[in-house]
Amino acid sequence: MAKYSLEPVEVKKINTKYRTIQTKLPVPESLAIFKALEESEPVSMMGQPPIIWDKAEDFSVYDKWGNKWLDWSSCVLVANAGHGIKEVKEALIAEIEQGLMGTYVFIHEKRAELTKALQALAPDPNNYTVFLLSTGSEATENCIKLARTYALEKHGSEKKYFLTFTGAFHGRTLGAQLAGGIPALKTWIQGEGDNFIQVPFPDGYRQTDISFDVLLDSLKEQNIKPEDIAGMMTESYQGAGPNFLPYEYAQKLEKFCKKYDIVSIYDEVQAGFGRSGKMFTYEHYDVTPDLIACGKGISSSLPLSAVIGRKDIMALYGPGSMTSTHSASPLPVAASLASLKVIQENNLVDNAAGLGEILFSELERIQMKYPDVLGVTMGKGLVMGIQCVISGTKEPDGELAQKINEKAFHKGLLMFAPVGLVGSCLKIAPPLCTTIEALLEGIQTFEEAVDEVLGRKTLE
Ligand SMILES: Cc1ncc(COP(=O)(O)O)c(C=O)c1O
Predict the structure, then answer these.
(1) Which of 296, 322, 384, 435 sits 20 to 30 Å CA-CA off 141?
(2) Do 207 and 217 meet the contact criterion of CB atoms below 8 Å apart?
(3) Closest ligand 1 atom to Cα of 135
(4) Do domains 14-81+348-459 and 86-345 have the same CATH topology?
(5) CATH number of the domain at 86-345, please?
(6) Chain segment 368-383, per-residue pLDDT in tens
(7) Residue 288 and residue 283: Cα distance in Å, rounded?
(8) Which residues form the pocket of ligand 1, taking CB atoms under 6 Å from any ligand atom?
C-alpha cells in the first residue's frame, strides 16, 4: 500500500491555467481531518495522495485552501463525463425537487428510461435486458450467480467451474474475490474457492506466451474439462497494465465459450462508457459477451452499476428474486441518464480515442527516456499505465512509482496511488472531457515529475 507522508513540505508555487499550488502539501490546516479519520476509520481507507477534496469540476479538483489539481484520476475511472458536470448536477437537483429520493424496486419513470438507454448499447438490444444495482462488485457477483444458475439449470451440477484470469480484479466481496486472480487479496479465503479456477492472462509483458494454447494447457494441468465450465469472466482490460486481450486470443476465447456453452462475461466496470475509446472495451475485440458488468463511469458520479445480459440468462430468476434494495435508486439513475447523454452528445468516446493516441505516444516517449526503470507503456483511449521496474528487470518497483506519483501531486497533477504488483504501475486516467490543451499541460507536468525523480536518482 502506498504511504504518503503527512509531514507538510514546502513545494514550488504553481499558478497556471489548470493548476494552482500555493500552500505546503499536505496543507497544514488539513491535518486535523486526517487525524479525525485515523481515529474513526480503519486504516484500509488511507493510501491516496493527501489532498482533501472540496470541489471537483470537469477535469479539475480543488481543496478549500486555494489549490487546484489537473485530474488524471477520474475518481478511479468514475468521472468519465467529467466531475460535477452541469447536466448531471441539474438532473440531480430536478430529481430532488420533484421529491423522489428512493423507491426500493417500486417503479419510477426514469428507471425505464435508463434500462432502455443501456439496452440500446447492448450487442443485440432486442436480445438483452438490463439489471440495475449499486456497485461494481454487486454486478460481477451477479454475473457469477447467473452463469452458475444457467449452467445448473441447462446442463446439471457437473458444469460448475468458474473461469477467470491471473491478475484479475472483480471487486472486494467474497464471490468477486474468489473470481479474482491476485493471490495477495485472497489470503483470507479458506477453502471456499474450489470451483473458481484461473488461467494465465495473456498480457504480453510478463506473460509472454499469448497463444490460446496456454489456456487449454492450464485447464489440462488443473484437470478441468471445458464442458464442466459454467462461466468465464474477464475484465475487458486488466486494470494494472492496463492489459488488453490480444485480438486473436479474444476471438478464440469467444469460440471456446460458444463451443462448450460457457457463459461469457466481460467486466466493463472500469473499462466501459468510453474509457478506452469505444463505448465498451470489448468492442475492440469484435466479441459478443453474454453478460456485461458495468459500474463506475455509468453515472460519472453516484453509485450505480448494471448487468446488461442475454435475455434468456437474465430471465432465470422470477419476480422479486433478483433485486437489491437500492436497485435503480432515483438519484443515481438520473445522474446516469444525464452522464450518458453528455458522453454521447459531446462525442466523448471519440475524444478519448483521439486524445489517447497523443497521450500514448507522449507517455511512451517519456518512458523510453528511462527504459531501464520504466518498463513499458500500455493503454488505449484515456487509460494508460507505465510499469516501474527494478533497473534492467521486469521486477516491479513500487517505491519508484510512488515517488513519481507524489512528485506529480506536488506539481498539481493528480493521479490515484499506483496500482498493481507492489503498487508499481503509474496509472493515468483523465476524465473523457479533458481538452487537448489540458492534456498537453498534464503531459508536460508528468514529464517534469519523472525527470526530477529520475534525474535525481541518476545523480546519486
Ligand atoms: C474491473 C473491476 N471490476 C469490479 C470492480 C469493483 O467495483 P466496486 O468497487 O464498485 O465494487 C472494480 C473496482 O475497481 C473494477 O475495477
Answers:
(1) 384
(2) no
(3) 10
(4) no
(5) 3.40.640.10
(6) 999 999 999 999 999 9
(7) 8
(8) 135-137, 140, 169-171, 235, 239, 267, 269-270, 295
The tens digit of pLDDT for each residue in 389-444 reads 999 999 999 999 999 999 999 999 999 999 999 999 999 999 999 999 999 999 99
CATH superfamily of 14-81+348-459: Aspartate Aminotransferase, domain 1 (3.90.1150.10)
Q: Best mutation site among 48, 76, 77, 137 for ligand 1, i.e. most ligand atoms within 8 A of its Cβ?
A: 137
Alpha helix ranges (H) inside 79-155? 86-98, 109-119, 136-155
Decide if 420 contacts 241 (C-beta within 8 A). Answer: yes
- Beta-ladder partners of 229: 161
pTM of the model: 0.97
Domain boundaries, the chain: 14-81+348-459, 86-345
How many whole angstroms from 172 Cα to the centroid of ligand 1?
Answer: 8
Atom of ligand 1 lying closest to residue 271 CA: 1
Q: Ligand 1 centroid vs 443 CA: distance in angstroms?
A: 27
